[in-house]
Specification:
This protein has 5 helices and no strands. It is an all-alpha fold. The longest helix has 28 residues, at 104-131. InterPro entries: Vps55/LEPROT (IPR007262). Keywords: Membrane, Transmembrane, Transmembrane helix. It is found in: Membrane.
């Protein structure tokens, strides 16, 4: 287990790690476009903006409602919109590759970027659960 030292604060280390992961995801997104001189893969970056919106609008900025069994109209709508935007993030590169608008390498870089982005979101979710651990 990693123990925080006197000069090193765990929350700052976590924040720096999340920022690095998110930045590397965006860098891979841009590289998928720049390496193949085709900016169509940037269309899936739009979904990176859409994915956290249900949490901000319906969940009060918290991700805890995503794992709860509580229902209700707005909570169910938020869960549906989060899932639909996540699937859309995967589907856009596949559809663009099928239409031969992007190369296979760009699609694979997009998938790697998406994987890093999802890992970032899951780490943020875990950290926010640890903050509110009762």
């Amino acid at each position: 287990m990693f123990r925080c030292g006197f000069l090193l604060d765990c929350s700052n280390l976590l924040l720096a790690g999340l920022a690095f992961m998110f930045s590397s995801s965006i860098l891979l997104q841009i590289l998928a476009c720049a390496l193949y001189s085709n900016w169509w893969p940037m269309l899936s970056a739009l979904m990176y903006v859409v994915v956290p919106m249900p949490c901000m609008f319906f969940g009060g900025g918290s991700t805890q409602f995503l794992i709860s069994r509580d229902g209700g109209g707005w909570i169910d709508a938020a869960k549906f919109l989060t899932g639909a935007s996540t699937v859309g993030s995967l589907a856009i590169p596949i559809i663009l590759r099928h239409a031969q608008m992007i190369e296979t390498g760009a699609m694979l870089i997009e998938f790697t970027s998406f994987f890093i982005f999802i890992c970032t979101v899951m780490c943020f979710h875990r950290a926010s659960l640890d903050d509110y651990d009762w």
